[in-house]
Amino acid sequence: ETGVTQTPRHLVMGMTNKKSLKCEQHLGHNAMYWYKQSAKKPLELMFVYNFKEQTENNSVPSRFSPECPNSSHLFLHLHTLQPEDSALYLCASSQDRAGDYEQYFGPGTRLTVT
Amino acid sequence: LAKTTQPISMDSYEGQEVNITCSHNNIATNDYITWYQQFPSQGPRFIIQGYKTKVTNEVASLFIPADRKSSTLSLPRVSLSDTAVYYCLVGDRAGNMLTFGGGTRLMVKP
Asked: Are A99 and B93 a contacting pair at CB < 8 A?
């Protein structure tokens, strides 16, 4: 138990569906992250939020839309996804948005797009 | 952007010391090096972090040469439970351009 929870743990959706992934951290951290992990690529940083403000968007397609209503919650809204978007989506948090702070990862959401 | 390169896989036996090296030729002055461990169906877990020279904690050591273009994670006396994927991460103090390596799959055999 890392203090970072993600729901759902598994999600199957069609290409025309709209769904959301949820992440919650109970660590009092200020920074939160979304990563994508697929079989053929290393961990890819998607979005970074610090104090609820988005500070980084690594050229992620607009069919992925993040939302950070407060420092403890992070959402990833999904719509009109493609089969190649099937992957493990990991959420993480850290004390601050800095490369020398340890990141705490959630267990991930296994997404399958059919 | 500090691109990182790691061996894809390594095998070892229980009780041996394992050294996993990560190359990061373009590392910048402000970049830190962090290593994570990941088990199946779990998110990565922090192991150790360093900036230069040597860092040691209760589970591992991290060796960083003077030019900082590589780093070596050292796991003393591995056990079967150390079978996992190990990632190195390079990132600057501002948290920009966090770049994970491709991961090294370590298999520890009896």
From this structure: yes
Instruction: Give the C-alpha separation, B89 to B5, whole Å.
Output: 10
Whether the CB of B39 is below 8 Å from some CB of chain A: the reply is no
Q: What share of residues in chain B are helix, strand, coil (percent, to 5)? A: 5, 50, 45
Q: Which of B69, B98, B27 is nearest to A99 (CA)?
A: B98
A65 neighbors A81 (Cβ within 8 angstroms): no
Sign of the Cα pseudo-torsion (A89, B8, B67, B47, in order):
positive
What does the mean pLDDT of chain B come to? 91
For residue B65, the number of C-alpha atoms closer than 13 Å in the C-beta half-sphere is 10
∠ CA(A29), CA(A30), CA(A35), 5° rounding? 85
Question: Best interface-test mutation with A: which of B4, B6, B98, B99 has the largest number of A CBs within 10 A?
Answer: B98
Give the percent of chain B with pLDDT over 90: 74
Query: Tens digits of per-residue pLDDT, A78-98?
Result: 999 999 999 999 999 999 877
CA distance A72 to A45: 19
Q: Taking a C-beta distance cutoff of 8 angstroms, is the pair A11, A109 a contact?
A: yes
pLDDT < 50 stretches in chain A: none
Q: Cα distance from B109 to chain A (closest Cα, Å)? A: 24
**Cβ proximity of A85 and A14 under 8 Å:** no
Confidence band for B28, pLDDT divided at 50, 70 and 90: confident
